[in-house]
Structure formats: structure tokens, C-alpha cells
Write a structure and sequence with these properties.
single chain, about 180 residues, alpha/beta, 5-stranded parallel β-sheet, about 15% strand
Length: about 180
């Protein structure tokens, strides 16, 4: 019922989403947002972490990841959540809608700290402690990765872009 209502509301607003990506810093809540969006829309969700990582914390090659993404993106509809700057332009190019969780660093760090020890279905293991290198990546996200995201997004003005600056923004969107 909720799926049908969301589609009606979005259609009335002239919003049509079939090929969606959700991006932003680790800890921003991309996966939580994506799961709720998938439930509301009925669109199949794919997590980049599950596509890239194996349960033993090894990963596939970049070429294998691109091949998996191309296969997913050949479908009529999908939601892909995750940043992975090396494949971002490929995904933005194929998407019709981009949700950008553009949150302050402290909110993202709080997010990654809050998930330590919790089983999640968006990554193939349970994080038992905060990795120092990962923390440094999140701390430098706004200065290192965000400018690259912005460059890519500027090229694709034909995409529908929703930029959320805090969790309340994303929650409000989902409430419609």
C-alpha cells in the first residue's frame, strides 16, 4: 500500500524514479535510507559494499565490479547505494535520480561509531571495532572525496538530484 501511495504522490509531483543511486560519506545513513526507499517503491536495492567485498574482507577487482554494475544497470529499475568514487560517474550516467547525503563529518563519524558490533545486511561482515584508516577516510571525506563528487554531479544536470544536509531532510522526504 505504501509503495503505491509513494508512486502516486511522486507522479503527481512529476517525479519518476526508476534508476536511483544513493551516495555520501560512510556513516551518513545511505543504506538505511536506501532500504526504506526500496520498501516504499518496490525497486530492487543493491549495496556497493556487498558487490565489492567478500566475507573474508578481500574484494573483487575493479573490472569485476564494473561488470557487475553494468549487469545491474541493464535492468529497467534499481537502487544502488554506496559511494565508490571509482565507479560513481558510471552510475550517475545511468541513473535518473541521485540522492546525495551531504552531511557534516561529525554526523557521519557518529553514524559509523553507532554501527560497531551490529549485524548489517549491507556489508558481508560485522564490524567489531573502528578501523583507524576508515576513520581517517571519513574525516577527510569533505576535503578529499566531496569535491570529486561535486565535479561529477556538475556534468549531469539532467539528473534529478536530492541533496540532504541532515538526517531530518532524508526522513522528511520519505514521509512525503
Amino acid at each position: 500500500m505504501a509503495e503505491k501511495l509513494l508512486r502516486i504522490v511522486l507522479a503527481e509531483k512529476g517525479v519518476y524514479m526508476k534508476k536511483i543511486i544513493v551516495i555520501g560519506s560512510p556513516g551518513a545513513g545511505k543504506s538505511c535510507f536506501s532500504k526504506k526507499l526500496a520498501l516504499l517503491t518496490g525497486i530492487t536495492l543493491f549495496h556497493m559494499d556487498n558487490l565489492y567485498w567478500r566475507s573474508d574482507r578481500t574484494h573483487i577487482t575493479h573490472d569485476e565490479l564494473v561488470e557487475k554494475l553494468r549487469e545491474i544497470m541493464s535492468d529497467d529499475s534499481w537502487i544502488i547505494d554506496g559511494n565508490y568514487i571509482s565507479t560513481l560517474e558510471l552510475r550517475v550516467n545511468e541513473a535518473d535520480t541521485v540522492f546525495y547525503m551531504d552531511y557534516p563529518t561529525d554526523i557521519c563519524i557518529e553514524g559509523i561509531r553507532g554501527r560497531i558490533g551490529k549485524k548489517r545486511d549491507d556489508i558481508p561482515w560485522t564490524e567489531q571495532e573502528l578501523d583507524d584508516d576508515f576513520l581517517k577516510f571519513v574525516e577527510s571525506f569533505c576535503t578529499e572525496t566531496k569535491p570529486r563528487i561535486e565535479e561529477i554531479l556538475k556534468k549531469y544536470t539532467d539528473k534529478t538530484l536530492y541533496r540532504f544536509c541532515g538526517r531530518d531532510d532524508a526522513d522528511e522526504f520519505l514521509k512525503g
